[in-house]
């Protein structure tokens, strides 16, 4: 048979299969069948999501939705038995009679096997999470509302910290961004109810602490994406599921009232969260929900940063050590409101709004010791970042005949401004000093030429920097999908189609960007009134006195007034100021159009989920090119030319998932998926941005030629239910990644930015990642008496990766993943009393790649311990006490090996206490 004949034969066969699949969807339902629908609740009336409902004697099986609802179509007429399974509850058998062309509705109430399932605490949430995970088609980890209720200061990142395969990165003492299966935050998508969320920082590292957690019902981490999910999650997808009034059959009231105490700062801070909702009308078909939160706290932290230079063949000669004491005051307000309306049983309309306002006051005092240049710098850095986030969602779901259709639209906006910002640097020159590197994290310096560092008159002004870079980002999305379930030769089958369009606009301007120096007539000395004595007796206790701040610093308020009123006294440093102002004025637009088709087919205990997603991306950017010329050693700006860039590309992302449940306790999954990750908008901008506050100061260069990373992913997992409330699971995965993006650092030696580190995002030559995840959750209720309250939550992740970086021949891992992560949580929960002790241990992980091994940057291994205590009842509420970072573990980064630290930061212990109800 010729090739053309064989091809026509195969196409004809494929067409027959497609028509066979679609025909039942296009034909009216058989008169010999009917529908069965209903809800599954607990004895208290709470909806049970993730319960497995099966029509005994048929192949019909479904998992309940978030309101406990289920529906079966095409059920043969007659009397049937509905069998319901839900971990932590007894099995239920409910008879139902089906009439031709009619619907039978049933309400099923399950009885708990455990007394603690009906009390407050993590155990109830644990049952919900386990059941949702087990009933899902793909590999998913769920953080319940009860677990979210334990977070401090409303930070979602705290709840993700101990999930298998997750690392949450800390910034300024806050758990902010999530690494999934070793893939850095930019390789993972973050959504709200499945819709994209904007981020004002110019990257795709969505800050988890910006979203008010009181508005959430749960958080879902999906590690194997189906075609109906956005394709830009190589590591996975993190979905924030919001609360609605329809989540509860009755009125909703919850609150959290308490405070925090930070070891560095030693103040009592305030926190308040409130949730109020209700369902109205005779049919309770209109609902509203309001959430509000307020946090105000003060914290401090100590840091020690080293920078090295190469002398001869030694790349680790200490060039500078910057020690600093930073105070941070924060006020955050979060609001959420949503309404829902159900005109009939098949239609739901809704609208949601979320708003967050975060205002901070940062005051940092630092001393930089420079042994190679015989200088001691004194630095005051003050900034007031103000971040405002808002998101609006509207949509509806309805049933058109046998098709369930979902139409949604969202708009999110993030704004960042700096009402005040200034850095003042003064210097004492000709200070001969000898560094003692016996403890390299905390170098000790001895002055060898008798210079009195306590003499304020020896200071000279280096510069005053004022940089205000207001930034905003807007993202609008429209999403439509429709799904139909039917029977294919007696086998349950479904089809789902959808399309989405998202547009994003990011822009930054620089109204104030200036570096000032004193003119020649005023450069001899600094007026003592501009200096303020600062006592820091409790600075960096871990250094045992080795790290030392000078006892005085530039006074921010007085310098600000002096700059504002000092016409003729100060000179604007050029071309630095003009370059910085022009380079920080940019914008970028992005448009993504997507469509998908997927289907499911149930064959006995096996479910197949397959399909493909198509995504087309357009982006365009604008920035400024600054042209300079140098005459007789003086550099000046000769012109500023607008630069433009654009790119367009398409990705087709097929996937196939298999879910197999040979026996009731065991669920097995396997999948092949493809994914992609777009470069961050800020990385594509054809400009350079300066950050003089870092040590060493850094210039970040955009790269509009970046390509999206792509990946092929293989996953397999098995989960076995243990008793009434427990599960053991094992997952293995492999990811082959092409063109992933990483940060490349080089030290500039010439030009206006000599001495700066240049950080540039570039595409790699590819890499791979593979790993194993083990998880064991168990309530030991089989033990007698009071011991039945004991339990354990544990997981271990092993990730091995290999990456190919341009210009490097060594075997290096991907940036981000720790090879080993161990989480252990022991808990006791009985009769309203709950005690939890949490321990996490992480191995070293690569954070940035340099030009050589000596310049590669790593996070050091760390160990964290947290404690949680609560007591109360579901009706009255509970009191709680959380202790975070019990051992005051620092965050440490190093280059080359651990004997060459570059950053050591101590955040101290934190207490969180109060009373809560329903959170």
Automatic annotation (TrEMBL):
Gene3D superfamilies: Carboxypeptidase-like, regulatory domain, TonB-dependent receptor, beta-barrel domain, TonB-dependent receptor, plug domain. Residues 140-236 form the TonB-dependent receptor plug domain. It is a multi-pass membrane protein. It is found in: Cell outer membrane. GO terms for cellular component: cell outer membrane. One of its GO terms (molecular function) is carbohydrate binding. Residues 1-31 form the signal peptide. Residues 459-886 form the TonB-dependent receptor-like beta-barrel domain. It comes from the Bacteria. Belongs to the TonB-dependent receptor family. This is TonB-dependent receptor.
């Amino acid at each position: 048979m010729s090739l053309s004949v064989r091809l026509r034969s195969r196409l004809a066969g494929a067409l027959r299969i497609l028509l066979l699949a679609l025909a039942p969807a296009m034909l009216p339902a058989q008169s010999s069948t009917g529908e069965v629908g209903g809800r599954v609740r607990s004895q208290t009336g709470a909806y049970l999501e993730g319960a497995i409902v099966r029509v005994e004697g048929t192949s019909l099986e479904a998992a309940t939705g978030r309101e406990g609802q289920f529906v079966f179509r095409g059920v043969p007429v007659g009397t049937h038995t509905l069998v319901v399974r839900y971990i932590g509850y007894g099995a239920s058998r409910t008879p139902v009679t089906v009439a031709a062309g009619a619907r039978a509705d049933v309400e099923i109430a399950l009885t708990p096997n455990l007394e603690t399932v009906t009390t407050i605490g993590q155990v109830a949430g644990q049952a919900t999470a386990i059941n949702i995970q087990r009933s899902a088609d793909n590999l998913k980890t769920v953080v319940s509302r009860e677990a979210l209720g334990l977070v401090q200061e409303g930070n979602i990142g705290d709840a993700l910290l101990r999930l298998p395969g997750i690392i949450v990165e800390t910034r300024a003492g806050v758990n902010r961004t999530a690494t999934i299966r070793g893939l850095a935050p930019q390789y993972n998508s973050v959504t709200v109810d499945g819709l994209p969320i904007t981020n004002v920082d110019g990257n795709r590292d969505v800050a988890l602490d910006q979203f008010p957690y009181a508005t959430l019902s749960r958080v879902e981490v999906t590690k194997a994406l189906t075609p109906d999910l956005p394709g830009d999650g190589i590591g996975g997808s993190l979905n924030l599921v919001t609360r609605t009034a329809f989540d509860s059959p009755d009125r909703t009231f919850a609150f959290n009232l308490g405070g925090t105490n930070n070891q560095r700062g030693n103040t009592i801070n305030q926190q308040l969260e409130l949730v109020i909702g209700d369902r109205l009308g005779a049919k309770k078909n209109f609902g509203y929900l309001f959430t509000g939160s307020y946090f105000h706290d003060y914290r401090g932290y100590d840091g020690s940063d080293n920078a090295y230079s190469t002398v001869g063949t030694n790349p680790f000669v200490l060039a500078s050590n910057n020690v600093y004491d930073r105070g941070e005051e924060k006020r955050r307000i979060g609001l959420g409101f949503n309404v829902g309306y159900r005109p009939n049983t098949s239609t739901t309309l809704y609208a949601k709004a979320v708003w967050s306002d975060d205002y901070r006051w940062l005051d940092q005092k630092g001393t930089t010791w420079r042994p190679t240049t015989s200088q001691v710098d004194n630095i005051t850095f003050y900034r007031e970042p103000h971040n405002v986030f808002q998101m609006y969602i509207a949509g509806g779901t309805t049933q058109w005949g046998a098709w369930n259709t979902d139409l949604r639209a969202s708009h999110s906006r993030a704004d960042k401004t700096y009402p005040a910002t200034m850095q003042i640097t003064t210097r004492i020159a000709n200070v001969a000093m000898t560094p003692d590197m016996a403890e390299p994290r905390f170098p000790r310096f001895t002055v060898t030429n008798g210079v009195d560092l306590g003499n304020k008159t020896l200071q000279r002004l280096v510069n005053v920097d004022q940089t205000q870079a207001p930034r905003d980002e807007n993202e609008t999305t429209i999403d439509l999908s429709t799904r139909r379930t039917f029977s294919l030769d007696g086998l349950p089958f479904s089809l789902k189609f959808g399309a989405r369009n998202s547009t994003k606009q990011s822009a930054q301007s620089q109204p104030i960007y200036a570096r000032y120096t004193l003119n020649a007539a005023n450069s001899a000395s600094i007026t003592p009134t501009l200096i303020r004595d600062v006592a820091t007796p409790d600075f960096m206790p871990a250094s045992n006195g080795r790290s030392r701040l000078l006892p005085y610093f530039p006074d921010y308020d007085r310098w600000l007034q002096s700059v504002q009123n000092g016409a003729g006294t100060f000179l604007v440093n050029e071309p630095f100021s003009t370059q910085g102002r022009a380079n920080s004025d940019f914008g970028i637009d992005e448009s993504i159009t997507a469509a998908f088709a997927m289907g499911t087919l149930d064959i006995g205990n096996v479910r197949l989920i397959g399909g493909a997603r198509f995504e087309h991306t357009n982006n365009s950017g604008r920035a400024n090119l600054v042209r300079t010329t140098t005459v007789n050693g003086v550099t000046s700006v000769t012109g500023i030319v607008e630069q433009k860039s654009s790119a367009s590309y398409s990705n087709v992302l097929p996937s196939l998932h298999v879910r197999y449940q040979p026996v009731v306790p065991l669920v097995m999954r396997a999948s092949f998926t493809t994914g992609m990750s777009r470069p961050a908008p800020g990385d594509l901008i054809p400009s350079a941005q300066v950050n003089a506050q870092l040590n060493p100061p850094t210039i970040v260069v955009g790269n509009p030629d970046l390509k999206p990373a792509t990946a092929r992913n293989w996953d397999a997992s098995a989960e076995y239910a243990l008793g009434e409330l427990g599960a053991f699971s094992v997952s293995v995965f492999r990811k082959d990644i092409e063109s992933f993006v990483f940060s490349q650092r080089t030290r500039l030696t010439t030009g206006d930015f000599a001495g700066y580190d240049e950080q540039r995002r570039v595409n790699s030559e590819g890499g791979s990642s593979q790993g194993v995840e083990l998880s064991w959750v168990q309530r030991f209720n089989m033990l007698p008496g009071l011991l039945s309250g004991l339990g354990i939550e544990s997981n271990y992740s092993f990730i091995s990766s290999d990456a190919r970086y341009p210009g490097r021949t060594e075997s290096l891992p991907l940036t981000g993943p720790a090879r080993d992560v161990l989480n252990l949580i022991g808990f006791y929960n009985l009769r309203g009393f709950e005690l939890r002790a949490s321990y996490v241990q992480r191995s070293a992980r690569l954070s940035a790649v340099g030009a050589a091994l000596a310049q590669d940057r790593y996070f050091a291994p760390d160990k964290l311990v947290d404690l949680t205590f609560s007591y109360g009842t579901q009706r009255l509420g509970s009191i709680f006490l959380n202790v975070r970072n019990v051992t005051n573990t620092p965050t440490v980064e190093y280059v080359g090996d651990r004997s060459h630290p570059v950053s050591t930061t101590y955040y101290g212990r934190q207490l969180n206490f109060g009373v809560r109800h329903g959170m």
